[in-house]
Amino acid sequence: MSDYDRVAEAISFITSRVNSQPSLDEIAAHMHLSPFHFQRLFSRWAGVTPKRFLQVLTLERAKQLLSKPIPLLEVSDSLGLSSGSRLYDHFVHLEAVTPGEYKLGGAGLTIEYAVHETPFGKAFIATTPRGICSFAFHEHTEIDEHLAVLQKKWPHATLRENRQRTRAVIKAMFGEEKKLDRPVSLYVSGTNFQISVWKALLQIPPATVASYSQVATAIGHPSSARAVGLAVGANPVAFLIPCHRVIQQSGTLGGYHWGATRKQAIHAWESARYE
Asked: What is the DSSP string of 95-161?
């Protein structure tokens, strides 16, 4: 069992027992590890202690975060198709594929890809000269499936594996590189509505959350919370377009394409770094 698998199991155990607030000794015993070694493993992987992780999971904390004013209301369609915000100590710039570029299907475009380890398990990443076009956590999915999705979206592009180039992007995403000579750029394809939702997600600061209805209001469609949910689910660049920061109005985390356990871990990691 890998460290990721051990911590994922621990997170599942903690999550199922939030109301009883299990002690460090109880969790460690479930994992068949000493409290000392378990705490070291959990903290190294999740970036937060098991005790702090329990606090992050409480419903009341989520409700408090939802009640805080966040700059989402500053987002509007008048911003056009590109927007950025400070994220993980870097500037993230989102650029949408134009209709003309979409029609070309990636002709003349080279997409470099690879699978890398991240704090939240293996991930597939694909980049273009214009920016990251795909990022997905890679757990039970074969790389051929990710490539098939890319090929369908960019049928005339050249796909090439390049671990060295993509590794630098991964390091930037997860804060291993403290300084960059350029913004972290995203190059994505979506409807105008999807793009407006993804831009709004970029405005949610780390260690905070927004509800689907708050995002809908921010983009000028207050009655479209369900459509916002669909756009969030279609996010092509996990983590950097932070769909994990959108939760239900009740304060519960809700679903996540890459699993509730991973969503909880990301929230805890962000809380440890930014609160």
From this structure: EEPPHHHHHHTTTT-EEEEEEEEETTEEEEEEEETTEEEEEEE-SS--HHHHHHHHHHHSTTSEEEE
